[in-house]
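Input chain follows. Return structure tokens only.
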Amino acid sequence: MRFALAFLLLLVAQGISAAPVRIKDLAEFDGVRGNDLVGYGLVVGLNGTGDGIRNAPFTEEIMSNLLERMGVNVTGEQFRPKNVAAVLVTAALPPFARAGSRIDVTVSAIGDAKSLLGGTLVMTPLNAADGQIYAVAQGAIVAGGAEAEGDGAKVVQGVPTAGFIPLGARVEREVEFELASLSTIRIALRTPDFTTAERIEAAVNGEFGRPVAVMVDPGTVTLDIGSTGLRSTAHALGRIENLLVEPERRARVVVDQRSGTIVMGEDVRISRVAVSQGGLTLRIEEAPVAVQPNPFSEGETILVPRTRAAIEEEAGTGLAEVAAGSSLSEVVAGLNALGVSTRDMIDILKSIHAAGALHADFIVQ
């Protein structure tokens, strides 16, 4: 186990070692952003896996409204179909999406429907945060799950109550944004860092041979469009977005407690520290004994409790020294010298971090 852990840590370190990255992969251009859309609709054509109307009355209400808009009077009628389901439809409107273009949508059941397999989403308006309709979704749902059920068993694979419609919505309204009228634009770093921002400034200025970019703070670099000498803002952004910059990363240790995964960046350092690891095992066994009365005598059978309790202490690793690491390989070698499992390694890293000897951001998921 410890050799596998060392291999994983070294492999990750080699994969995330500093390398030139495009500016478009490190930052966003201020104002060039998408918008989230949401809508409430109805899925029809299900094979008996839709909402139970008694448990989801809102399904009956939206179905009645839909039929009435189509000229079908259903006032006072009782619906009991099993092939419809109420859903929430979500999508992301990309920047500069034009009217008539299509976007992907995600459909999720909100009632007690068992599956959306084979269903079709009926025309559903999608609203943004301002309450305006920006797209309309409709189409056949692609669900990635499966479900089978018998009298005594049931099996579900994936999530059949959620699905996807590729290019399932058509954009009806555009988001107004006059990119060409901007005289300056801000480059916003996804991970703010002084060193990275300074390198972006230097790369942009070096590309144009004059000072056109200025670092404002660790998360922002301002670009003067007029100083670039190009015809438009779009031409300027197209020229700088593919410039290569070597990003600077903070040292981090990421721990996933559910899977027992540990990931370390190559800049992680550990000060000289001594670690002792062991554990206690408490065992309790219940073995009650039945005591019966003598033959032909009056009485009743009773259970007499019998409990066995024991505490076992594991030998542990003793007090082991982890030397100060000047590189990731030395840190891994020092931790593996403790000879513990990955789960115990997580607890040891927590303790080292609490002692102030782990010089990195410690993130537990």
